[in-house]
Fold these 2 entries.
Entry 1:
Amino acid sequence: MAQALVIARMPGPAMLLSDVIQLALGALCLLACLRALQRSSEPARYHWRWLAVSFGTFVAAQALGTYIDTSSNHSCDWADDILFSLSVIHTAMLLFLDPDHEHNRFDRLHVLDFVQVSCFWVSVYLYFASAPSIALVTAGWEGFGWSSSLVFNGVLTLSFLLRALLTQSKTVRRFFGGMAIFVLCTGLADSYASYARNNVQSGQWFDLIWSFLLGIPLTIALAHDPKESLGPQPAARAQSIIVNQFFPLLYPFFALLMLVQDARRAPALSSCIAMVVFSGVGVRVLIMQHRLLRAQETLEFDASHDALTRIWNRASILESLQKEVERHSRTGEPLTVMLADIDHFKVVNDTHGHMVGDQVLIEVARRLAASVRGYDSVGRYGGEEFLIVVTACDRSSAISAGERLRYSVSELPVPTSAGSIPVAISVGLVSTSNRLPPVNHSTLIRMADQALYRAKARGRNRVERADSNSQMKSRDSKVESLTDAGDSSVCMEDR
């Protein structure tokens, strides 16, 4: 209303006042986006962050345009055009969001996306820079002409509409549908204003159109519910992959389509831009492939390792034991199975809390894993119990191997947030040889568990062995056995 009053009643300062009003509207849009950014959670913050950058650039461009109109110094027109173009390019970045990840930090892939959008804009600009103004030969559209903004905004409108259609969320549809209307109307308005025959000047009635259009994103930002997510929500996994990978290819496709036309007039420049576009697509594919392989490795590790101690979990260590038992049945190679339990672990939890208990578990697991050879296996069997599978270890050297494990844990107190805590383990073990009848892994675990029970009953912090006939043989824990090279060198590495 203020702008209409200025245009109608104050023709003298109308240009300056109209520019100031549009500058104020742009600042309001920027503040509304920042407000929505502060109140929203991921991934909605991604959209409001880019919209804030877009309107921040628009405010800078409008401020520069106001200076140009008032001073009649047109030497900065090129900078003003670049700033207005950048504001639209930042708006195009709203499409690039991985539906499977809610980014709370800047994703380096967005750099490639920004390059692709910029290359598309440059290819459109190059085409219309040397082409004459062409009217839309359609009934009722004689006042509009083909322009770079109309083509760029048209593709952007199509992209926003596709984003709105490829989701089940009403919030996302409202957001991208509203932005599609804003971008399309902006492109049409710029097409009308840039058409020379219309002779549109600043400070005239057409400024009301720009001000009205700025009300669309302002309304969207003010009406946004921070509890609602703007992340795309495809109906199925296959559709999610399509949504994720389609839009990064959309702008390179249209960029190359325009560069084919530009090549007739500027072959060298068009070739350079086409090379940048192709390189961007190739780098993006390589990065996505690397991320996929890294995610696959992470999933495989998490599926086979204990979440706390990062050693083999129960299923994996039992699978490893089963394979070694089968190999023992084929080759007759000796095999030792140990069950180790942390002594008085409940006292640690009751005295210092479960967080300190977790720190003890992590350190004990680390010391056990560091005390075996690379092809032996250590896993968390359950609670504070650990299962150790030692290959090529016969009965004569099994006790020394168990003593080395016991000593590696009890040698030094475990550093925790509650101070250093002395920790000891009891170990029960069983060994096989080629002279024994075939055994299965459950039998070996049962025998090792019986030996562990005996170690607990005989005072803890010791190693007990069960032979294949289930007759328990014990041996006191002697530090001297650690230097028994004749035994320990068979099953363990010096650490």
Note: The domain at 314-491 is CATH 3.30.70.270 (Alpha-Beta Plaits).
Entry 2:
Amino acid sequence: MKKVIIKIFGIALLTSVLFSCKALTDRTKKDIAKMPESYGISTDTINTSKINWKNYFKDPYLTNLIDSALKNNKEINIVQQEIEISKNEVQARKGEYLPFVNLFAGSGLEKTGKYTRMGAVEENLEVKPGKAFPDPLGDFTLGLSASWEIDIWKKLRNSKKAAVHRYLSSIEGKNFLSTTLISEISNSYFELLALDNLQDIVKSNIEIQSNALKIIKQQKESAKVTQLAVNRFEAQLLNTQNLQYKIAQDIIETENKINFLVGRFPQPVLRDKTVFNTISLDSVSVGLPSQLLQNRPDIRGAEQELMAANLDVKAARANFYPKLGLKSGIGYQAFNPAYIISPESSMYNLAGDLVAPLLNRNAIKSMYKTATNKQIQAVYEYEQRLLNAYIEVVNQQSLIENTKKSLDVKQKEVNILNASVGISNSLFYSARADYIEVLLTQRETIDSKMELVDIKLKQLNAKVNLYKALGGGWN
């Protein structure tokens, strides 16, 4: 009696856990929907994720790269096969709760010993009056057999539905991969444009510093400065020249990263480097927080996995209940092929069985507990996706605003330093400034220009990443 009570209590406890999982998920959805604008997400119903990536990214070189990547990327192709595998699993599960019908045919030969019970019986039997049983005795069969497990508790149908949800989840996985791929190519492309601009800045400063070095050498010959000044100017020039080799290597690696994502061998990436400072992405509208549930492929995929896990629990619970099976067969059987297609050789059978687990149900219990634990795990994974999506949107939206302000301030700094270069040179030539001031001004100017490019890149990347965080790019 105690064992029965314990089992009933265990099933009730697991059932309550399932209801708790659903309540936890519903509560999370409500919390996301109630997130106010003060936390970083606006309440505007317009959502940028609905914009197709071809309309969001206006650069023709970039859109060509993305279009090619979506067709040729190796990881996309691998995931496509995963989708086909999931689709095949659905067909397999569907066939499990339909009747199985088999065609069978067979033949055999049996020689019974004369001095055995069967041999003695056959010796006294006649096929027809005056015609003894053949020895050896042949056996030829031809017919159909069928078996069918009646899905009383919807175990097989729930397994099939779970496979459907996992198939849908695999599709969402491909959509999320497409979104990620678009963002990776876009970020790498903008990084490539930024490197091109850095290279131009370095080349421009090499020219400026080379001219300054020539003048310093002339002043040294006229004894206006010492060799120390010449060495300092030359060292700065060499340092700047060295930067161009690092940038050149970064360009090669970034190009090949894009080539890998596109699914092609190393080759130059076509681009227009002059648009970097003027490129403008459309303003991003994040929409309602609850729209993340519909727009993010990874969240929708996690939701499909959660629904599949719920059905797995139901299917595992059905293993505790009796199974009803039907078996039947119809055909012909005779000891001679000449008689097989004959009404007298016809045979048939029909049987049903009802089987229920009675003792040693530990394996079934373990399967049920495992399915329940996986469902709880799916709930946590779903909530983790929700939390991660919301944080990503808030972070990228904040980054866009802050980089915009930082870009304006840094641009003013660069303008001041550009003017300072000319001023410092004039003061130095008129012997009213030390050469150290000229060197520092040149160094600060090149550093500020490179920082300006970096801030611009971060701003572009933030808009790309926000587009991804909102779930855009897959449709």
Note: Residues 362-429 form the longest helix (68 residues).
